[in-house]
Specification:
about 270 residues; alpha+beta; 2 domains; three-stranded antiparallel β-sheet; about 20% strand
Length: about 270
């Protein structure tokens, strides 16, 4: 898990906004000075087969400007540009001065800092860097195991095809709780090679990654034996229950339901 912690510094952005506002005020002062000596009238441009034709409009009258009068044409064009830019700068300066004139509000970092240590130890401060990491992790493409034509069809509410009703329940609840996940994403294990665990999920408070396997036929002795081998392979590769490995169990007499999935999600992923 790698992400950059991000907090917006209230004082820093105010300093930057003040500097930007002052820069706009300098630009506005320059424009106002230029407009004092700008030529009268406005520039009108017509396009023809011979190229642009320039006219000056004064008091509803239009007068042709030859190409020899390029300095007059340039100054009239600059005048129109400065008038438009002046309107924009005035709006921005007014808006920014209004923001800068408001009393500073404590930022997210300060909200957490104000709590007593006994309360802080119960919380994970919300970090925009983590939120960005979770979003990008979820969007990153990955290869899945795929299905055979004879495989039974089960679907989660979002349309994702899975291998059992229990997996559909897990997918639905992961989405409901806003937990980033990948279904049957490839994972390399030493001594085994590439496998496709049921789920790879992230704790949305910390960004920690967990492998979640749902073993749905533990009363089948061959299936149970393969399950033990899979868990041993995880242990050999540094995956342990509660640390970075979750597995849930199900048998014909002990079905898996939404309550079980919620308990796992609330204990490990939020």
């Amino acid at each position: 898990m790698e992400y950059e912690t991000k907090y917006i510094d209230e004082n820093k952005w105010r300093v930057e906004l003040e500097a930007l506002t002052q820069e706009y005020e300098r630009m506005l002062a320059f424009i106002e000075q230029e407009l004092k000596t700008a030529p009268e009238g406005s520039l009108v441009i017509y396009h023809s087969a011979r190229g642009p034709q320039y006219y000056i409009r004064k008091d509803r009258e239009r007068q042709y400007l030859s190409r020899k009068e390029k300095e007059q044409i340039r100054r009239l064009a600059a005048k129109a540009y400065y008038i438009d830019l002046k309107k924009t700068l005035e709006k921005l300066i007014k808006r920014y001065r209004r923001i800068l004139g408001q009393k500073p509000i404590p930022g997210p970092k300060e909200v957490y800092a104000q709590y007593h240590e006994q309360r802080k130890c119960l919380l994970e401060p919300l970090d925009s860097g983590l939120l960005e990491y979770l979003e990008q992790w979820q969007k990153r493409p990955y290869e899945t195991k795929g299905f055979l034509q004879a495989d039974p069809e089960y679907y989660a509410k979002n349309g994702l095809r899975v291998r059992s009703k229990s997996e559909a329940i897990i997918v639905d609840l992961l989405i409901e709780y806003g937990i980033p996940f990948r279904y049957e994403c490839g994972l390399y294990l030493k001594s085994v090679g590439e496998i496709h665990p049921d789920f790879i999920v992230l704790n949305k408070r910390t960004g920690e990654e967990f492998v979640w396997e749902h073993f749905g036929k533990v009363d089948d002795w061959k299936y149970a034996n393969d399950m033990v081998k899979r868990v041993e392979a995880y242990h050999y590769n540094g995956y342990y229950e509660g640390k970075n490995l979750i597995y849930t169990l199900e048998s014909s007499r002990q079905p898996f339901g939404a309550r079980d999935a919620k308990r796992i999600i609330e204990q490990y992923l939020i």
